[in-house]
Design brief:
The protein is of the alpha+beta class. The chain folds into two domains: 41 residues, Ribosomal Protein L9, domain 1 (3-Layer(aba) Sandwich), CATH 3.40.5; 72 residues, no CATH class. Helix content is 30%, strand content 9%. The protein is built from four helices and three strands, in the order E-E-H-E-H-H-H. It has a three-stranded antiparallel beta sheet with strand order 2-1-3.
Length: 141
């Protein structure tokens, strides 16, 4: 069941680590089996997985130091947002900040903050500050 690049795609049935319900991700066969057997995900036919948009880079996996700092990435839409200096950027409004964001895994908080800032955010503390400032900015607008 592996894809053409050798990864087994799974669709998450519930939030698991840095993945939300309905996220689709590829893993080695062993990893996929463990995740599926835990009940967190189900196997997906590789032919049913939508292709990633052209030019979109995958978010790198953690670097093995236990901090998962390298998981903060940015997508093409955010890269086009500029250097993050426009305080009133309309593109910031499209970044969803879920209720209870403070309880999200630090990787998810850093990904949200990276999208808001338009650059990679590498620490949990910085992510929290960016998200809090964005919530305050939206409330004042």
């Amino acid at each position: 069941m592996p894809s053409e690049i050798g990864l087994v795609p799974v669709r998450f049935l519930r939030t698991w680590r840095a993945y939300y319900t309905h996220d689709v991700a590829g893993f080695t066969a062993e990893q996929a089996q463990t995740i599926v057997e835990s009940g967190a995900a189900e196997y997906v036919d590789p032919d049913d997985v939508p292709a990633k948009p052209a030019g979109e880079e995958p978010i790198p996996a953690h670097d093995g130091d236990g901090d998962h700092d390298a998981a903060a990435g940015e997508d093409d839409a955010d890269a086009d947002a500029g250097d993050g200096d426009d305080d009133a950027s309309d593109s910031d409004q499209t970044v969803e900040i879920p209720d209870g964001w403070e309880e999200l895994h630090h990787t998810k908080r850093k990904m949200i903050a990276s999208k808001i800032a338009g650059r990679a955010v590498t620490t949990s503390e910085e992510a929290n500050e960016i998200i809090e400032a964005e919530i305050q900015r939206r409330a004042a607008a």
